[in-house]
Amino acid sequence: MKALDKTTLEKQYTEIQVAYDLIQRQIVELQIEQATLQRSLSRIKLNIQAVGIRSVPNYAPWLPMNARGSK
Predict the structure, then answer these.
(1) Residue 52: left (phi > 0), alpha (psi -120 to 50), or beta?
(2) CB 56 within 8 A of CB 48
(3) d(CA 3, CA 19)
C-alpha cells in the first residue's frame, strides 16, 4: 500500500471533521424535533384526559357534535 502524503492526510482529516460537524448538527436538530414531538404528545394525552376516556373513540373535533356518534 502506498504511503499517504501529509497533504492527503490533512485533506481527509478536514473532510472527516466536516462530516462529524454535520452529524453533530443533525443530532441536535433531531433532539429538538424529539422534544417538540414529546410536547405535542403530552398535549394530546392531556386533551384525551380532558374529553374523557369513554368519548375518545367518537372524538372528532372537526365534525359537528351531532355527527360524532355520541352515545
Answers:
(1) left
(2) yes
(3) 24
pLDDT tens profile 55-65 = 545 556 666 65
- Rounded to two decimals, the pTM is 0.57
DSSP class of residue 61 equals T
Short-list 21, 14, 66, CA closest to 58: 66
User: Locate cell 441536535: which residue?
Assistant: 28
State how far the Cα of 29 lies from the Cα of 51, in Å rounded to an integer: 33
pLDDT at 49: 79
CA distances from 50 to 45, 46, 55, 56 (A): 9, 6, 10, 10
Amino acid at 56: V
Q: Which three cell numbers stand for residue 27?
A: 443530532
| Whether residue 26 has pLDDT greater than 60 | yes
